[in-house]
Specification:
CATH class of the largest domain in chain B: Alpha Beta
Shape of chain A: globular
Radius of gyration of chain A: 21 Å
Number of helices of chain A: 9
Helix content of chain A: 10-25%
Shape of chain B: elongated
Number of domains of chain B: 2
Radius of gyration of chain B: 27 Å
Largest sheet of chain A: 6 strands, mixed
Strand order of the largest sheet of chain A: 15-16-14-17-18-19
Oligomer: heterodimer
Order of helices and strands of chain B: EEHEHHEHEHEHHEHEEEEHHEHE
Strand content of chain A: 25-35%
CATH architecture of the largest domain in chain B: 3-Layer(aba) Sandwich
Number of strands of chain B: 13
CATH superfamily of the largest domain in chain B: Response regulator
Distance between the termini of chain A: 46 Å
Number of helices of chain B: 11
Chain lengths: ~425, ~350
């Protein structure tokens, strides 16, 4: 399976007459986008804003961030299972508006347990310097869904509007020669028999909650009843997956599926012939003990017998239950002779090592720990606050204290975070 | 800068094990290794008082020693309290740790100790104190003192303290955040490659081993037993009167179920952000099984059910919270003469 990314660098987004690329400037037209979004069932109206890196601007709460990408004809479809038929993603050419993002806001605060502000996009200052998202040019979509819409229909409308607009923007690049192309092909470096075979095991959902009705996660399915499954790394990068509507601690965004930090790093080292990227397993954190037993064993089994890996790296989706499932999967892999390294998030709100991990398996001893609980920022008042309504705008006006977990991108669980817990 | 230094009988020059019963002595100025310490602390530093005590005396009279030392440090108007280094001497380490931790807590001045990692005092006090790792070789006194003085000066100047391996102190078991060059993904892949090649790697977190909790003896006579229900599923009366936080809760509540046959959904809400609450919302008895307990009570299977249930939220809660709340709940249950508790979690 070969995927080519045709990279078009974007340094600015501007409103104009129609959607097109003008060198590295992405020009788009509000009315054109409005027509597209208002055709999505459940959307009553929609507003758009453009923000750029360094601007004294804040937006939130964030629903999701998507990189504008569009498939060239002849390859797999755009967002299979959501915008098109659920055919296998990850082959052919995908045009990428690199440096741009399509970012959609929620209309409600997610509530107390995750912080009332929800995920905030901060474009300037110290907090911004800790998030990759502050370096992007964002087209912000502010949806106004129809009143008394059930939650699942509202969230589905958000998902569809955002993906459709992202694809629409990137289609402007289909006839343009990209500045560079990148190849993603596991067969490209086949004579790697001497290098360790390394697999990636990534959780894509946690069954602590039921998915919403009709919630698309993997090829349009909601993952209910799903067993751990093999995916080609290109499928993660090219539209097979979006995160759940339910936010997870630290965050997982579509943008970092498209630019998956773990998969990108494994590919890089594969191409440098330092390892042999064996493939990936998508798995889910469990609802109960039987579910845990089944999922962790299936995942380990696939890594051993289908991918024949010597080593595996594991990431989780969410908080405590995903954390224990991650550790159990790693333990099973180690028991099968497969070396592991796991990435966990910061659970120690009292900043004590004893509270940090939910496992103590001597074999699961290679742990990347994303910190965050001792990093807070006092966000100042900014010139521009973008939110779906005045109450949310007031909430985000500043100055206010925010945990690093709620500045989108900072404590990301897909491998993008530069936060690290240090034991002292 | 005025410092007070604590030494045991050996380093204080009173004598060896035969003097281990010597009571606390107060000397003006520096003594023994304190002279080196004074020199290393810099020209404006003075060890105004040296306190010397026999190891046995200090351990056997811990309370009186602590109050006497606090008094002397206060009298000396000290800016810094230093104890040891104690190397591997266990009694010395225990005394030094308890004195440092009392001075730090009561007087709020910087304190520093020195001990070997294996010293039982290090085990007990490492999380509250900066203890320079002295190793077990007293011949390294100059080197150890130098690190103690360097860290003491940083603490006095309120400068940021570096990591254990930079400063030479025993890891305290605490966490702080750093922003690093490499992403988590890069660190993850680098670590697994080192591991698979049998090369050294540094895990970013260390698992903690906990002492096993022994299984309590069974209830002797269930038909006479008084039972209690406790949940960490966050079920609270409507309005959440104790304002129990939905995540990392620091509070718990006890709520009446007197004369009630079961829990009605309209009377309760859930303060817990970590599970899908729809089923408990529909029927709170599925979290706090009052309906079934009443049946068992009527059938005479159990003696009686205590007429309140206890609730808190068990989401993302650090051990320092849960340990305290658990103790408080256990004390309450004990006071009430409860024989057995059913704990329901989510």
């Amino acid at each position: 399976m070969q995927l080519t990314l045709a990279i078009h660098p974007i340094t600015e987004i501007r409103f104009g007459e129609n959607t097109r690329l003008d060198g590295t400037v992405l020009v788009t037209a509000k009315d054109e986008l409005y027509r597209l979004a208002s055709q999505v069932p459940g959307i009553e109206s929609v507003d758009f804003e453009i923000v750029c890196p360094g601007e004294s601007c804040r937006a939130g709460p964030i629903f999701d961030i998507v990189e504008p990408r569009a498939k060239a004809p002849g390859g797999s479809p755009d967002w299979p299972g959501i915008l098109g038929a659920p055919q296998t993603a990850g082959s052919g050419t995908t045009h990428v508006l690199n440096g741009a993002a399509v970012t959609l806001l929620r209309e409600e605060s997610p509530g107390e347990s995750r912080g009332v502000t929800g995920f905030v996009l901060e474009m300037s200052g110290e907090a911004a310097s800790a998030s990759h998202y502050a370096q992007l040019n964002h087209l912000i979509i502010i949806p106004h869904s129809k009143p008394s819409l059930p939650v699942h229909a509202q969230q589905k409308a958000y998902r569809l509007a955002q993906l459709q607009i992202a694809v629409h923007l990137a289609r402007a690049a289909l006839d343009t020669t990209p500045e560079l192309t990148q190849q993603f092909d596991l067969s490209a470096a086949e004579n790697l028999t001497a290098s360790p075979r390394v697999a990636y095991v990534g959780q894509i959902f946690s069954r602590q909650r039921k998915p919403e009705a009709d919630e698309p996660i993997l090829y349009g399915t909601d993952t209910e009843g799903m067993l751990p499954t093999l995916l080609h790394p290109n499928e993660w990068l090219d539209g097979a997956l979006v995160p759940s509507y339910h936010t997870s601690l630290g965050g997982a965004e579509t943008y970092f599926y498209q630019n998956h930090p773990v998969i990108a790093e494994l590919y890089r080292r594969h191409q440098a012939r330092e390892l042999n990227f064996a493939g990936t397993v998508a798995t889910i954190a469990s609802a109960d003990n039987l579910d845990r037993e089944r999922n962790t064993r299936f995942a380990a089994h696939l890594v051993k017998w289908a991918l024949k890996a010597d080593a595996a790296v594991l990431t989780k989706f969410g908080g405590g239950v995903p954390h224990t499932d991650l550790a159990e999967t790693a333990r099973l892999l180690e028991c099968n002779g497969i070396k592991t390294a796991v990435q966990v998030t910061d659970l120690a709100r009292d900043r004590r090592v004893e509270s940090a991990l939910l496992f103590n398996f001597p074999v699961v001893n290679a742990i990347v720990c994303i910190g965050g609980n001792s990093t807070q920022w006092k966000l100042p008042a900014v010139e521009r606050v973008i939110a779906a309504n005045s109450a949310l705008a007031e909430l985000l006006a500043g100055p206010f204290e925010i945990d690093s977990h709620n500045v989108i991108g900072v404590a990301n669980q897909q491998g993008a975070s530069r936060l690290r817990s240090m034991v002292y | 800068m005025r410092a007070v230094h604590y030494l045991n009988q050996f380093f204080g020059g009173l004598g060896g094990e035969e003097k281990a019963g010597a009571p606390l002595e107060v000397h003006t100025g520096a003594a023994g290794p304190g002279k080196l310490l004074e020199q290393l602390l810099g020209s404006n530093a003075e060890i105004v008082t040296t306190l010397i005590c026999g190891d046995n005396y200090a351990v056997e009279n811990q309370q009186s020693i602590v109050s006497a030392v606090l008094e002397k440090v206060r009298e000396a108007n000290a800016d810094l309290f230093v104890a040891g280094p104690c190397f591997q001497s266990g009694r010395y380490g225990m005394a030094a740790g308890s004195l440092c931790s009392a001075v730090q807590a009561k007087l709020g001045i910087p304190v520093i100790a020195g001990m070997a990692q294996e010293n039982p005092g290090a085990d007990l006090y490492r999380d509250t104190l900066f203890i320079i790792d002295s190793g077990d070789n007293a011949a390294k006194m100059r080197d150890v003192m130098n690190r103690m003085a360097t860290l003491a000066k940083k603490l006095l100047a309120k400068e940021a303290v570096g990591l254990p391996k930079e400063e030479g102190y025993i890891p305290r078991g605490l966490i702080r955040d750093h922003f690093v060059e490499k992403t988590a993904a890069e660190r993850l892949v680098e670590m697994v490659l080192a591991k698979v090649k049998d090369e050294p790697f540094e895990s970013e977190m260390i698992p903690t081993a906990f002492a096993p909790v022994p299984m309590p003896p069974g209830v002797k006579d269930l038909q006479k037993a008084k039972l209690m229900l406790i949940t960490d599923g966050g079920l609270v009366p409507k309005g959440n009167p104790d304002r129990i936080q939905s995540s990392a809760a620091t509070r718990w509540g006890s709520y009446t179920i007197k004369d009630r046959a079961d829990l009605r959904s309209e009377d309760y809400e859930i303060s817990h952000g970590g599970y899908d609450p729809q089923f408990v919302r529909q029927d709170p008895n599925r979290l706090v099984p009052l309906d079934v307990m009443r049946e068992l009570e009527q059938e005479g299977v159990i003696g009686e059910l205590y007429d309140e249930f206890i609730s808190t939220s068990g989401l993302a809660n650090p051990l320092s919270n849960t340990r305290r709340m658990g103790r408080e709940m256990a004390e309450k249950a004990k006071r009430l003469g409860i024989d057995a508790i059913i704990l329901t979690s989510t």
